[in-house]
User: What shape does this take?
Amino acid sequence: MEYNINFLKQLVITVYDAIKPLVGLKQAAKKSKRGAGGDVSMYIDLVAENTLIKLLEDKNTDILLISEEIGEKYIGDEEIARKKKKVLIVDPIDGSNNAVRGIPYCSVSIAYAIGDNINDIEKAVVLDLTTKDIYSAEKGKGAYLNDSRIYVSDYEIPQECFFEINLPKKNLMKNLNLLNPIIRKFYKIRILGSSALSLCQIAKGSMDAFINMRKSNRLVDVAAGILILKEAGGRIFSLEGAEIKRPLSINEKFPFIACNAKLELFLKDVFN
Assistant: This one.
């Protein structure tokens, strides 16, 4: 079957319909076993993922699914999926803790790739679970919020730039000292809790940069957001300033810096 952008939108809307009634309920937070992504799965995570898997199985598709809870699972014929190198990278709920507490910042994230590397991602969608807005992108065709084309901001230092940080607890003060030149020059700091949605915020120009220094950041969290950001004219790179070239695997975890084009050199200079 063809994984066009409309089918990916159908997937995220189906997940939305299944889990929206659970958002903010105690039942949603019921703990289960630890998922393949490393976090303890909650009831709402499992409902989201199982809904997606059932839909894919009903469509008789042959694909490798990489998802936060189940890890890596072939849907349909594994031999055909391997031969065609079709991969779906999913975070059924990015920002699960926000979702179960009723904090309006969480999303469903799906990326489609043909290949085995993050640069092989061809299509992506991220659905905002609060507003039901859908961010989407196809490689070489731009990024969209619903039906409107979006672009990153053109803010630069010393304008009133907004940025988000995500820091590990380990070496917290050391990392804050490293960020001091940025904190001094940026106007506002946010810590929001859904990496996929934060990349989309940069893509539409509401945020100007996102510095994620957590080595536990997972591929499934950002796979879709990366393509959407790039297609909106944004930049994403490692803390060392290098291009992010990562295999498509549930085991992939990495920190990153994302920003609009005008802040790229400033942020690279700070870290290197």
Notes: DSSP finds nine helices and 15 strands in the chain. The mean pLDDT is 91. The longest strand covers residues 86-94. The longest helix spans residues 43-58.
